[in-house]
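Students often ask why we bother encoding 3D structure as a string. The short answer is that it lets us treat folding as translation between two languages. Here is a chain of 374 residues written in the first language.
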Amino acid sequence: MAGFALGAEQEEWCGRLRALARERLRPLAEKGEPGRVNRPLLAELGELGLLERVFGSGALELCLLRESLAYGCTEAETALALQGLGAHPVLRSGSAAQRERWLPGVRAGRHVAAFALSEPGAGSDAAALALTAEADGPGWRLTGSKCWISNAPEADFYTVFARTGEAPGAKGITAFLVPADRPGLTGEALEMLSPHPIGSLAFDGVPVGREDVLGGPGQGFRVAMETLNLFRPSVGAFAVGMARAALDATVAHTAGRTAFGGVLADLQAVAHRVAEMATRTEAARLLVYAAAGAYDSGAADVPGRAAMAKLLATETAQYVVDHAVQLHGAAALRRGHLLEHLYREVRAPRIYEGASEVQRTIIAKELYRGVAAR
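And here it is in the second language, the structure alphabet:
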């Protein structure tokens, strides 16, 4: 089912991406170890020029890229997205020296990037982070911890958000580019439901200087939000890609599975459920494209649109995958089945880069801000 916003060339490109994901990326993903950075997969993403597209694309193209890869290989999609999330602050707010040092390796899949915002006590409430940057001569020393950081502890560098204290709350946060080999920086992997690498980081007086700052002192929250406003619609695209894969598998299964004297699709309860899955998936897909288009056009309401797109798409994907499992029956619970894999993958996007509850709060604030401005 083609979305009206896409032209023939875009649809063709998406088809090529799905084929690449299935034929070249999926075999590499299957050789990887769950919970670990898959460097051969990253290198292939670089070789194919897909990582370059992350940094040269608008929001809509990024969404199409993530949706198409997610349809055929969620591991490849996630590896690509994490490179973009971790390195986009360097592209957008880094110095010429920072960009020259790190971005070519990220684009080639040689350097692994990570976005280190969340903490044990500051996940959804990002402005409440407690990692401190204490003044030390011309620079600072970072002390504290980060948690739930994708690609940690194997990343080669981290975009780290710490409290420098220029003002309370969000105004006192600074973003730093911290190479993984800085003294005092350690980490450990966390075993999570989703198969991509996630870990915690400990900062024991890690030295950083003015040359490591992204943006400027006290501008870290802005750096973080600029990144998230771009990537939130594309998280929705990731979710839509999973939903479409689950939907297509369900249509094929119910059309061919015999039961009760016919095929499952002949049962009205089944057919209506599949119709609902398809309708919700298409609605989420179009909302994601609309949010991405708003970002690309420089619209003023991007935060609210991005939040709507992520909210609807991730909640929809959870619904679609869950019902797909139900319609497939016990076979979908077997390790290695597409839907068993998607069932583990689909849960996390409702939490990371702003939980569904946070997205609803953003949407409401944007709505009432419009009322106050009248």
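Translate back mentally: The mean pLDDT is 94. Keep this in mind for the problem set.
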